[in-house]
Design a protein that fits this description.
Helix content is 12%, strand content 42%. It has 84 residues and is mainly beta. It has a four-stranded antiparallel sheet, with helices on one face. It has a two-stranded antiparallel sheet with strand order 4-5.
Length: 84
């Protein structure tokens, strides 16, 4: 694989706590991921994430040790559901 990362498409649901999204596709380039997002149904919000391969990017709360997010991940939001 020419890159050391992949682009994931996730459905996002802001009404629930972390994790509040789930994966629906993985692509080798941002352009392929964006093209797919633009073709998806607009009743959901989506995110694309640039995820490194062979690297743990979990973020744990420093006080209680609980998994609370992701660290050092580039992501973009597509708020189709929120469009009026």
């Amino acid at each position: 694989m020419p890159n050391d990362y992949v682009w994931g498409i996730f459905v996002a649901d802001g009404s629930i706590g972390f994790p509040n999204f789930f994966p629906i596709g993985i692509y080798t380039t941002r352009e392929l991921a964006i093209k797919e997002v633009e073709a998806l149904p607009r009743e959901h919000n989506y995110q694309i994430l640039r995820m490194p391969l062979n690297n743990n990017f979990a973020y744990y709360h420093k006080m209680n040790g609980k998994l609370v997010g992701m660290d050092s991940i580039h992501h973009e939001h597509f708020h189709f559901k929120d469009e009026s």
